[in-house]
Amino acid sequence: MKLSYLFSDGMILQRGKQNNIWGETIPGTTVTGTLGGKQFCTKADARGRFQTMLPVLPAGGPYCMEIYSDEKRVIRNIMIGDVFLLGGQSNMELRIGKVTGRFADEIKEINDPFIRMFDVPKEYAFGEKRRWLSGGRWKRAEGLNVLEFSAVGMFMALKLRTKNSVPIGLIQTAVEGTPAKAWCSEETIRDMGFYVDELEKCKNKDYVLSTQEKEKNREACWLSESEESFYKKKESFFKVDIPGLWKGNMCDFCGAVLLEKRFFVTEEQADMPAEILMGLLTDADKVYINEVYCGNAADRYSPRIYPVQTGLLKAGENVIQVHLYIFRGKGGAMPGKPYGIRFKKGKERWIDLSGAWDAQIKKEMEYLPEKTFFNYVASGMYNGMISPVSRYQICAVIYYQGESDVGHPDRYALEFRALISDWRKLWHDEHLPFIYVQLAGFSDGNAENQTTQWAQFREVQRKAMEIGNTAMIQAYDVGEYNDLHPMDKKTVGSRVALGVRKLVYKENIECTGPQMKQIWLDSEKRVHVIFDQPLKIDNTGGDELISEIELRGLSGNYERACVKETEKEICACLMDDEVPSGIRYAWRDCPMLPGLYGTDDLPVVPFIKEWDRDEIHIGEIYETDR
After folding, report:
1. Is there a cis peptide before residue 591, judged by omega within 30 degrees of 0?
2. Among 263, 265, 416, 433, whose Cα sits 20 to 30 Å from the Cα of 112?
3. Domain range for residue 430?
């Protein structure tokens, strides 16, 4: 008898719904079983497939399930509670273990056997909707298992558990880097007509395998050749600043670079446990202290926190070396990140390694093209990961994705709506709650001269709230300009829990911050914005200045505005007494100091409104689409 890996010890079944169980056995065989003392029965069809409904049980447990067919199966420690599908890309997938630097004390306290997660294997498929998973098991939020949980999912679950005692199940399907198209059905892809050629190409298994082998060899040769260069002596060094993104002649450099710095350690420090923090380096690196290997990272987005083995540091002078591999130019060390050695013994201590480093070009290499990520191809993840779990009952989808689609917001507007429709069809529930996270702030290390590309994309996400039974969770205010994976997943998870309480538990609460409702211009050239919820201001900019509120002046450029506020309204004017022709708030890639919140600490939804000067008449109120 074959059952899905979802039906295994420690599973959580959705309360309040009729749960399915399915599998395969000898054709025509009767399948019987018991769950919580109640019976179920069905018969396998001519292909040996069977599916039946499980008895409805109240929230709680543990329960035991026995299944009889050509063999006996026993599934133990089953709980009945609320099950959530976690979807999206890396910010949903990001594990608790990656945010221990931010929430170490809280994470140590997590020990809840009634929060459980099932990791769906990362597999794609083209041309077929898979019925079966290749592996997976349910893990409880205890001990080292905690570090493997989705950080957003875990912090959401912890909040929900404080609200009630219902067990929480998380089915983790998020995969780093995946665009929305990968999570849409083939039927939808063909209807939209955007990616049909790549879809057809990837149905050819020989093409997929040969491409993977060719690119694997190309990358291995590139790394091997560059690695060899570190063992060839060169005399000339030059200085580089860490942190800092390389400019000038080095901006387009691809190849191997040796970075080296000498530092001094006291006798007391030499005996302390320590770790190296190397921020974010582009693209890959290996780190050595006193010629002993400490750790490595294979891509530009992985945090660099490497342990230092006891006895490696010595009192006096030490040397740290970084073998840096730059695949596609734009090398360097991300600004605003820590670079140093952290000692932990009693009070934390720190050796700062930022500043001037010696650098040596070991070998200039050809540009290394990106490999083909087949899990990014249209419909691949829908077929490989979503389809095999779609018969398992859930109460809501929690979705955090979009970073890979920022470059085409108009197309994403169609794809995201299609994705929601596809998943609801799979679960045979046109009202399945869909709670999604609006992208956090990020500007690739550029704090000052930002674009508005990410702001425009967030607006597309905002408009998706028009879809019934959806909720948007904001994260732009907890983003980091220098990290695509901001560490504050606790705030995001807590806000997601509000979305669950609103859509799933039907509580009369807000889960999205205040939105612009009306605007009007008064006789003193001031723009009034009225919101749909009460406001409070975090006045970080000084008297009458709110960071991120800007008005468009005669030049057509946006300038910071003077602002006053009342309960549900702000009043903004230009400092040079011009008549404004537009207003915007938090309208850039990574808003640095957003200051507008609702009374429940949810940030005001970013907005922009522009007009011709003769379009808006003094005193006349204009409704927005919000």
Report:
1. no
2. 433
3. 84-190+377-503
Does residue 312 form part of some domain?
yes
Cβ count near 273 (within 10 Å): 12
Token pair 């387009």 is found at 252
> For 180-191, b where at least 16 C-beta lie within 10 A, e where not — what string?
bbbbbbbebbee
Residue 540 — pLDDT band, cuts 50, 70, 90? Answer: low
| pTM (whole model) above 0.85 | yes
Domain-located, residue 217? no
Rounded to whole angstroms, the Cα distance separating 12 from 6 reads: 9
Tell me which range, 335-349, 475-489, 570-584, is most confidently predicted by mean pLDDT: 475-489
- The beta strand positions in 387-428, using DSSP E, are 396-400
Total Cβ atoms within 10 A of residue 404: 18
The pLDDT of residue 236: 86
Q: Which helix (H) or strand (E) holds 520?
A: strand 516-521
Residue 283 lies in a domain: yes
Average of pLDDT values for 478-487?
95
Query: For the residues of 338-384, what is the DSSP string, one character each?
Result: -EEEEE-SSS-EEEE--EEEEEEEEEE----PPPP-GGGSTTHHIII
Whether cis (ω within 30° of 0) applies to the bond prior to 483 is no
Last residue of a domain, one of 435, 468, 503: 503
**Do 397 and 304 fall within a single domain?**
no
Residues 412 and 487 reside in one and the same domain: yes
Indicate the pairing of strand 72-88 with strand 38-43.
unpaired
> Within this chain, do residues 538 and 491 fall inside the same structural domain, yes or no?
no
Which residues contact residue 129 at a Cβ distance below 8 angstroms, ignoring those fewer than 6 apart? 382, 383, 387
DSSP labels, 292-308: EEEEEESSTTS--EEEE
**Beta pairing, strands 305-308 & 168-172:** unpaired
**343 lies in the same domain as 404:** no
Residue 237: φ, ψ to 5°: -115, 155
Q: What is the CATH number of the domain that holds 352?
A: 2.60.120.260
CA–CA distance, 3 with 72 (Å, rounded to integer):
12
Structure tokens that stand for 543 in this block: 């008297």
Rounded average pLDDT over 399-425: 97
Q: For 210-219, write each residue's pLDDT tens digit.
A: 999 999 999 9
The answer to whether residue 133 sits within a structural domain is yes
Number of folded domains in the chain? 3
- CATH code of 149's domain: 3.40.50.1110
Residue 117's region, left for phi above 0, alpha for psi from -120 to 50, else beta, is beta
Is-contact 613 589, C-beta < 8 A? no
Whether residue 491 is found in the same domain as residue 389: yes
Residues 487, 387: one domain? yes
Of 364, 387, 414, the residue at which a domain comes to its end is 364
For 307, what's the count of Cα atoms within 13 Å in the CB-facing half-sphere? 4
> Domain check: are 359 and 393 in the same one?
no
